[in-house]
């Protein structure tokens, strides 16, 4: 009976080791995904700030150059640009993934899957 108990324990130990290895692989994969997403988010933040800076710069230049007493054809264009920028920024912020196949980051996760 003690032999059966030892075999049962060794199977349990083997299963434990397999589960530990699977957990380690899952953790490493998730860690890799998080690092990729953090890098991408940093790049997006830089791009968003840069775009906003350019829009403000153009806006200020137009105000300085164009005579306020005359109709300015650039004002509606700048307003449209600001509006589109705001929509795009909101879409980027709201597209955080809640699931592996959702959001704009699915492409990065798929890329990670193909690397492995």
List the helices and strands and how they pair.
Blueprint: H1 2-65, H2 74-94, H3 106-115
What does this structure look like?
- This protein is mostly helical.
- The chain is 82% helix and 0% strand.
- The relative contact order is 0.08.
- The two termini are 45 Å apart.
- The protein has helices spanning 2-65, 74-94, 106-115.
- The protein has three helices and no strands.
- The radius of gyration is 27 Å and the shape is rod-shaped.
- The chain has one domain (2-115).
Considering DSSP H and I runs of 4 or more, what fraction of the residues is helical? over 70%
How many helices? The count is: 3
Main β-sheet, in a few words? none
- Beta content: under 5%
**Mean pLDDT, nearest integer?**
78
Tell me the Rg in angstroms: 27 Å
Overall shape: it is rod-shaped
Structurally, how many domains make up the residues?
1
- Class by helix and strand content? mainly alpha
